[in-house]
Amino acid sequence: MEKNPRDVVIIGGGPSGYTAAIYLARAEHKPLVLAGEKKGGQLMYTTEVENFPGFEEGIMGPDLMLKMEEQAKKFGAEIRGVNVTKVELLGEIKKVYVGDEVIEAKSVIISTGAWSRMLGVGEEMLLGRGVSTCAVCDAAFFRNKKTVVVGGGDAAMEDALALSKFASEVLIVHRGDSFKASKIMQQRVFATANIKVLWNSEVVGVAGEQKLEGVMIKSAEDEAEVKCDGLFLAIGHLPQTSLFDGQLALNEKGFLLTTMTGIMADKWKVTEADYWLDGYPTMTSVEGVFGCGDVVDYRYRQAITAAGMGCQASLDVEKYLAKG
After folding, report:
1. Which terminus of the chain is more exposed, N or C, with fewer CB under 10 A?
2. Span of 68-72, 246-250, 290-294 with lowest mean pLDDT
3. Could you tell me which residues come within 8 angstroms of residue 305 by beta carbon, excluding any fewer than 6 positions away?
4. Are 315 and 322 in contact (CB under 8 A)?
5. Res 61 pLDDT > 90
6. Exposed/middle/buried for 176, CB within 10 Å: 0-12, 13-18, 19+?
């Protein structure tokens, strides 16, 4: 165990964790980032990123994460690619475990992210090479190409509509005979000429080695390969919150609740005065523990919004430490 508690430990890397580290390091809080063995988040599986401000020619996802990491280190952040195995967050001093090692801290920022659900049919090997989990991010790369969207909720409808502005054809593959999406989203999809729907079907395989060349689609009648250039998965996200279950408030889907999201969800009794004047919008249900990025954000899930939330969390932590 370290002799003196640190000001702050950040659990998780990615745009939110690294941004928080940059701010806190510049404020001389010497943050420790436990970024995980797969540090960098989902952008490590992304090719070209064109919608992050400051990179007019675009930047590869892993390169963007490396730049953020190096910037945090430049100002004095310590970043370790290790997994946290246990936390004890109640009380004034928090305990974070990495195996047998115990790290004490006055505050903790959680930025563990949320991983997109996969089909498990080999598509993971082609992420960033025709397979995507974000149509808003990648639709422009599929101009005049054929694409497939898997899902039946609002996210799938949004993805299909985003792709329809660029792709020559969008095929929605859905296991059921009706969508779960809101009526207005369904109406927009059905009214879009280049969007087709394949009911009672599922993607059971992918074709291509260096890039996606097609998908295997199985229905009650047969199984056949459909040639396509893009496969977009819109079947939900898995917030990485199992480590905090039972210690921190989560919503029904497992995302981390903060003061801000608690107000939005009307789950906590927090007044507007608490929120705007004396409160900490990014604080979780435990004092001194803050959340940011996709582990909190179940709606936007963009690198830029995650980075913005990392900034918010860091400023809240600075205020919290100064008050203590």
Report:
1. N
2. 246-250
3. 297
4. no
5. no
6. exposed
SS3 of the chain: the string is CCCCCEEEEEECCHHHHHHHHHHHHHCCCCCEEECCCCCCHHHHHCCEECCCCCCCCCEEHHHHHHHHHHHHHHCCCEEECCCCCEEECCCCCEEEEECCEEEEEEEEEECCCEEECCCCCCHHHHECCCEECCHHHHHHHHCCCEEEEECCCHHHHHHHHHHHCCCCEEEEECCCCCCCCCHHHHHHHHCCCCEEEECCEEEEEEECCCCCCEEEEEECCCEEEEECCEEEECCCEEECCHHHECCECECCCCCECCHHHHHHHCCCCCCHHHHHHHCCCCECCCCCEEECHHHCCCCCCCHHHHHHHHHHHHHHHHHHHHHC
Q: Are strands 230-233 and 131-132 parallel, antiparallel or unpaired?
A: parallel
Q: How far apart are CA 11 and CA 89, in angstroms?
A: 12
- State which amino acid sits at residue 110: I
pLDDT band at 262 (very low <50, low <70, confident <90, very high): low
| Per-residue pLDDT tens over the stretch 10-32 | 999 899 999 999 999 999 999 99
Confidence check: pLDDT of 271 > 80: no
pTM more than 0.85: no
Tokens 């009672």 sit on residue? 200
Q: Enter the tokens of residue 197.
A: 């729907």
pLDDT, tens digit (0-9, with 9 covering 90-100), for 211-222? 999 999 999 889
Indicate which residues carry an active-site annotation. Answer: 134, 137-138
Contacts with 187 (C-beta within 8 Å, 6 or more apart), sequence order: none
Cβ contacts of 45-53, under 8 Å, gap ≥ 24: 45/127, 45/128, 46/127, 46/128, 46/137, 47/128, 47/129, 48/141, 49/137, 49/303, 50/140, 51/137, 51/302, 51/303, 51/304, 52/303, 52/304, 53/304
Q: In the predicted model, what is the mean pLDDT of residues 97-109? A: 97
Q: Give Dmax (Cα) for the chain.
A: 66
